[in-house]
Amino acid sequence: MFKKLLIANRGEIAVRIVRACREMGVSPVAVYSSADQSALHVRLADEAIHIGPAPSSESYLVIEKIIAAAKRTGAEAIHPGYGFLSENAEFALAVESAGLTLIGPPASAMKIMGSKTSARRAAIEAGAPVVPGTTQPLASVEEAEALAATTGYPVMLKAAAGGGGRGMRLVRSPAEIASAFSLARSEAEASFKDSSVYIEKYIERPRHIEIQLIGDREGDFVYLGERECSLQRRHQKVVEECPSPVVDEEMRRRVGESAVRVARAAGYVNAGTVEFLVDREKNFYFLEMNTRLQVEHPITELVTGRDLVHEQIRVAAGERLSFSQDDIIMRGAAIECRIYAEDPQNDFLPSPGLIKRLSMPSGPGVRIDSGIYEGWKVPLDYDSLLAKLCVWAETREAAINRLARALDECAIEGIQTTLEFFRAVSRDREFRLGNFDTGFIDRFLADGMKTDNPEGEDDRDAQLSDIAAIAAVLHAKERAAKLDLSSAQAVESRWKLYGRISQRR
Ligand code: MV4
Question: Which domains are seen in the chain, by residue range?
Answer without folding.
Answer: 4-103 (3.40.50.20), 132-201 (3.30.1490.20), 205-331 (3.30.470.20), 338-452 (3.30.470.20), 462-504 (no CATH)
